[in-house]
Amino acid sequence: VQLQASGGGSVQAGGSLRLSCTASGTTTTLTLMGWFRQAPGKQRDMVALIGYGGNPNYIASVRGRFTISRDTGANTVYLEMNNLQPDDTGVYYCFATGPFWGQGTQVTVSS
Q1: CA–CA separation, 28 vs 67, rounded Å?
Q2: CA 60/CA 10 separation, integer angstroms
Q3: Is residue 61 helix, strand or coil?
Q4: In terms of C-beta density within 10 A (0-12 exposed, 13-18 middle, 19 or more buried), how is residue 37 classed?
Q5: Beta-sheet strand order (sheet of 76-81)
Q6: Which of 1, 6, 16, 78 has its CA 20 to 30 A from that of 88?
Q7: Is 99 helix (H, G, I), strand (E, B) or coil?
Q8: Which segments of the chain does DSSP mark as H helices, in order?
Q9: C-alpha angle with apex 12: 10 to 16, nearest 5 degrees?
Q10: Dihedral sign, Cα of residue 58, residue 52, residue 69, residue 104
């Protein structure tokens, strides 16, 4: 399985970004897909995960601001990020059950 992520960038606080990640290869067993992030000098933490049939889960700090969704037909997971804050800055990694990881995409939020 390969995960190809896109999106990310630099915004000011309060702005929005959208991340996308498409899985290729043997995708029938990708029970969970989602996003982790790693801030400078910190460990990689879960941001949001979604199961094959839905049921999203979020880290508390992004609940109400981020929305994860999944298009199972297109093997793609999305992360809509609104009202971004400087603490959201980091490298965002796409994840799928395996585990499999995408290449990481930078999100920078300035105050």
Answers
A1: 23
A2: 23
A3: helix
A4: buried
A5: 2-7, 17-24, 76-81, 66-71
A6: 1
A7: coil
A8: none
A9: 75
A10: positive
